[in-house]
Design a protein that fits this description.
Helix content is 54%, strand content 10%.
Length: 771
């Protein structure tokens, strides 16, 4: 944090770029910055047009400043999360340490109760007995002293423990808070005023400050901890106020109530939305496409009708549903699905197919895919001033192979028989191939893949599956962290694949970020020939805000449910009851909230459809509760309706559950497939913050090229088997997948020359001969 704060100060001292670019769209600034970043000093000097060179440098400097503010914002959030986590861990240790003392205090209290029972009427004897009990345990004062540290941390009150953890980092945090400009995105500026107040007292040694600032932004516990009484006046504890303001500032950044001026990741997302006057023109076409009404009142009526129809249908069919039961608490339980029988002919056909698949090397597959698709046409320098490469296609293929398989530039060049030097491979990765160009290459491969009949026996092409898998990073990486679920250092490769198995889109997600925020991005950013409108996901996809936003974007969300323990079902109103499933529906939808904020929700949806904002940015804000963030509550209410409808259908339809489970296993197979391709090593060794996502897309490109080639070889082999009279049905072929690897070679040929003369093992002295 200290280093990046110095970096921001240095960047801002060069030039203030925002006034120069205020009238230029961000979509123009970013490509210019990317082009300048791809050029080295010699390339920049070769630019003959001086104004163009200056424009590129200004855009590059501006983008560097923006990204540095984003990095500082992310590090500030991590620091606050870490402080809170350590405080909670310390609280757990103290609670364990104080358990004996708590038991002793309870024993004293039990003795007092016993004494009260023995002397119900005699107050003098009772008073003397209680005094004797207290005296035997050291007296009332000693018991009070022992009680105070125990009572201070009751009910998970970890806040008093945050100051010692925060103190070593306060100088860096204060410097950050003064470098970046925090602003309130709402009318309530009490938090920003409190920040300015503690900044003015950064170097003071006073324990208490005048209570001149409002703490309305803080909870009752924080206010009680920050306020104190000194000389009959209310004052503020300087240390507790400081550790109160910064966590609330982090919470505000996450919820969107606070933003950093001149940033992107933590900017004010409200300013990026389309004005409602422009939304009115887009609204009729969007509502018609979604098949929803155009007014708030009609939309609520539409939701009520859908929920009523599904609930009544499930309630009526409940006696016939032998796989669903309720326990005494009303929790639903469903029987485990039976495995589908495997056709007897499948094993024989699979063996015959694998025998006829020709042996291929990954490099040959990449070359054949290039011959048929020409996907390397998207690669090249950002500027036309770069020197021409000798045999560029071969070098691009080696770059894709080396970085996708995690060999790296050095090992790829060493095994390429002097075809390319490692410096060239690194230059092409840094300057010729970007994430956007890899996505364009993926689109070409997907387009060729859809020309074949075989993939559409595996899926319709109208659905996608989303899931994440762990990817290891080197320790010296700002994006990496220790992942709780995987128990290792790294991040998450979050994939969207088609139900035809081909990879559509991938993201790199840092640990600690809720995976579900990226669940909708893959479909909206996907511009390939496959345009799915149904999305399968694991249990993380059943979040209420995700359901609400997905519905209004026209995406049918179908997550796999592993547990029902924490799922809430909603009914239309309290007066509506059901014969069989009434105890399942425990809560009521807040229809007034949906109607009140319908316009705000549609403004967000139309802005996403127009490409102004991404769902992930919004869901990151909606994933943090805030009293001022009404969008969170409104989208959650819509999501509660849609999730209840989905869950009712899911629990009453075994075929639907079977289909969801089958689809979600496809992405798990894809994760294993890409792990097999990354044979160079499990750890991504680059510390460059742009490299993790690029490496994931490199793997997607190689994986898709292998799938395309497998489909071609499988189609030819199946044609040969048909001519030989083997019975092949669509049902049997639907059991296959393009993730076949037995016929693929990754490492090349190893030869041993047994006729070579043996190497002499003579011992030659280096310095002196020992006696």
């Amino acid at each position: 944090m200290r280093q990046w704060s110095h970096r921001l100060g240095w960047l801002e001292s060069i030039l203030t770029t925002r006034p120069l670019l205020v009238d230029i769209a961000r979509t123009k600034v970013q490509p210019c910055a990317a082009e300048a970043l791809a050029l080295d000093v010699a390339d920049m000097r070769r630019l003959q047009i001086v104004p163009r060179r200056r424009a590129l440098l200004v855009c590059l400097l501006h983008q560097a400043q923006v990204q540095t503010r984003d990095q500082l914002g992310e590090m500030f959030l991590r620091r606050m999360r870490r402080t809170r986590t350590l405080a909670k861990e310390k609280l757990t240790e103290l609670q364990e340490h104080h358990r004996e003392l708590e038991e002793h205090m309870l024993a004293v209290f039990a003795d007092v109760i016993d004494e009260t029972i023995l002397n119900p009427e005699d107050n003098v004897a009772l008073g003397q007995g209680v005094r004797d009990i207290l005296k035997n345990d050291g007296g009332a004062e000693a018991l009070r002293e022992r009680y105070e540290p125990v009572s201070a941390y009751h009910n998970n009150h970890y806040r008093p423990l945050m100051w010692p953890i925060h103190r070593p980092h306060r100088a860096a945090i204060f410097r950050l808070s003064q470098l970046v400009k925090f602003h309130s995105a709402t009318q309530d500026a009490s938090l920003i005023d409190a920040l300015a107040d503690i900044q003015s007292y950064q170097y003071t040694r006073r324990d208490y400050l005048p209570a001149l600032i409002s703490l309305d932004f803080a909870s009752v516990r924080w206010q009680a901890l920050s306020k104190s009484r000194q000389k009959m006046e209310t004052v503020l504890d300087r240390r507790q106020l400081e550790v109160c303001v910064f966590p609330y500032l982090a919470q505000g950044l996450q919820s969107g109530d606070v933003y950093i001026e001149g940033s992107e990741a933590v900017a004010d997302y409200r300013q990026q939305l389309i004005p409602w006057s422009a939304c009115v023109l887009r609204l009729p076409a969007s509502c018609q496409a979604l098949q929803i009404p155009e007014t708030a009142e009609s939309f609520v009526t539409h939701l009520k009708q859908r929920l009523r129809e599904v609930t009544e249908r499930v309630d009526t069919s409940f006696p016939d549903n032998a796989e669903l039961t309720f326990d005494d608490t009303g929790t639903p339980h469903r029987k485990r699905l039976k495995a589908q029988p495997i056709p007897e002919e499948l094993e024989t056909l699979e063996a015959l197919l694998k025998e006829r698949l020709p042996e291929r090397h990954l490099l040959d597959i990449l070359k054949n895919g290039q011959d048929g698709v020409g996907y390397t046409r998207h690669f090249g320098p950002a500027s036309g001033v770069d020197r021409k490469l000798d045999d560029p296609i071969a070098r691009y293929l080696l770059t894709v192979f080396g970085y996708a398989c995690e060999l790296g530039a050095s090992q790829t060049a060493r095994h390429a028989h002097n075809l390319v030097r490692r410096q060239i491979l690194r230059r092409m990765n840094a300057q010729h191939i970007t994430s956007a160009k890899l996505e364009a290459a993926l689109r070409d491969v997907i387009g060729e893949y859809t020309r074949f009949e075989l993939p559409f026996l595996w899926g319709s092409g109208q659905a996608a599956i989303a899931d994440g898998t762990h990817i290891e990073l080197i320790r010296n990486n700002l994006l990496g962290a220790h992942h709780v679920r995987y128990g290792r250092f790294g991040g998450i490769a979050y994939h969207h694949i088609s139900d035809t198995y081909i990879a559509l889109c991938s993201h790199f997600i840092a640990c600690g970020v809720w995976e579900a925020v990226y669940i909708l991005d893959g479909l909206l950013k996907n511009t390939s020939a496959l345009q799915p409108d149904t999305l399968y996901a694991d249990t993380h996809g059943q979040s209420e805000p995700v359901f609400g936003l997905a519905t209004l974007l026209g995406i049918k969300l179908m997550p796999r449910m592993r547990t029902w323990n924490d799922v809430t079902f909603y009914r239309i109103d309290r007066s509506t009851t059901y014969k069989h499933i009434d105890r399942l529906l425990t809560q009521v939808v807040d229809w007034d909230l949906i109607e009140r904020y319908w316009q705000d929700m549609m403004q967000v949806v139309l802005s996403i459809q127009a490409g102004k904002v991404l769902p992930s940015m919004l869901l990151q804000k909606l994933g943090v509760y805030s009293r001022k963030n009404h969008l969170y509550q409104a989208f959650s209410e819509v999501g509660r309706v849609e999730r209840t409808i989905f869950l009712l259908e899911y629990m009453s339809d075994p075929a639907m559950r079977q289909h969801v489970r089958a689809e979600t296993t496809k992405v798990e197979s894809y994760n294993n497939f890409t792990d097999w391709l990354a044979f160079g090593g499990p750890v991504l060794r680059s510390g460059d913050p742009v490299e993790p996502e690029k490496r994931i897309k490199y793997r997607d490109l190689v994986a898709n090229a292998v799938m395309l080639h497998n489909v071609v070889d499988m189609t030819n082999a199946l044609h040969d088997l048909q001519r030989e009279g083997v019975c092949i049905t669509p049902e049997l072929v639907a059991r296959f997948s393009p993730y076949l690897t037995e016929h693929l070679k990754r490492f090349g040929q190893y030869l041993i020359d047994m006729n070579a003369p043996p190497m002499p093992l003579d011992i030659k002295p280096l310095f002196t001969t020992r006696a």
